[in-house]
Amino acid sequence: MSLRILYLFFQFLLETLAATGIGEMDRISHLPESIVHHILSFLKKTPAELVRMSVLSKSWFNLTASFPCLDFNIDCFSTRESFFKYVEYTTSRFCHHNLTAHKLLLYTEIQEPAELDVVNRCLELVLKNGVRELVISFTYSSLDFPKYRLPNILLSVSVLESLTILGCDLPSSFMLDAINFKSLIQLELTLVPLNDEVITYLATSCPLLQVLDIGICSGFKKVCVYGHQHLQELRITYDTPLERIDIEAPNLSSLRIEDDDDIGAPQMNLALCKNLTTVSYFGYLSPNLSFTDFVSSFPFVENLYLAIH
Q1: Pairing state between β 303-308 and 278-283
Q2: Calpha distance 158→182 (Å, rounded)
């Protein structure tokens, strides 16, 4: 939404406040905090826009600090130094209010170990009070640069509803500590090292999970999910051999499989997925798998999308 439209909306609010007898100079300051945050949510939330909003009144300077949607993208900054300073400053101001964040979106390329130190400190601060939607998307300046390992505190964020990870390692205590993802509905993992046991453990530890997206994650050969009552969508993209997909999820309705390197379709056991009506497959059918055998893996399919090499 443009600042012009927001200005018109402010005018309406100010006229309403004026009718209540609130002094002209204090009208903006008397807007409820929830309304201010809702207004801010319509912005593109670039740093420049938030700074402009913060100067509307004294109280708005504090309200922008408590804005629960933290969106950091290095592409919006002219220098790397200014980006990491802004991330640290903004998260520090927000966490001072001891609030649960609605969103934390962090997109950046990592070039120096010191940059990882900054994002790790900020991430731990936000996770301490909880976050509902978390997106961590990291690329690296060199293939030799070690991937960022997510902090162990992530596993205890019980209010987390959506989690997207790109280019990071899972917490070191992942298979040792209990996962408290009791609210997680959507999980997307891309370029995250996994193995067969981790995928099964993740699905089991997220009882409300509805959407699972595994994208080009090295280390796994099977995707096995058993007895999951809420899973509705499963998307798998692979560029290393995938041997088997074994799913028992009565409410699974959509399956998308993408063979990114012409490896061939895996063996599949989906007989208990009686609501699986939509299947998409992009890739290569190996010579030892006939088309009839492939299609027979989806006995309840109604919509079948194929792009076969």
Answers
A1: parallel
A2: 6
| Span 190-249, pLDDT tens digits | 999 999 999 999 999 999 999 999 999 999 999 999 999 999 999 999 999 999 999 999
CA atoms of 254 and 238, how far apart (whole Å): 18
Q: Nearest 5°: phi and psi at 30?
A: -90, 0
In the chain, the DSSP E strands lie at 69-73, 101-110, 131-140, 148-149, 162-166, 168-169, 186-190, 211-215, 222-225, 233-238, 244-247, 254-259, 267-269, 278-283, 303-308
Q: How far apart are CA 50 and CA 23, in angstroms?
A: 25
pTM recorded for the entire structure: 0.83
Provide the 3-class DSSP secondary structure of residue 116: helix
The whole-angstrom separation of Cα 77 and Cα 122 is: 18
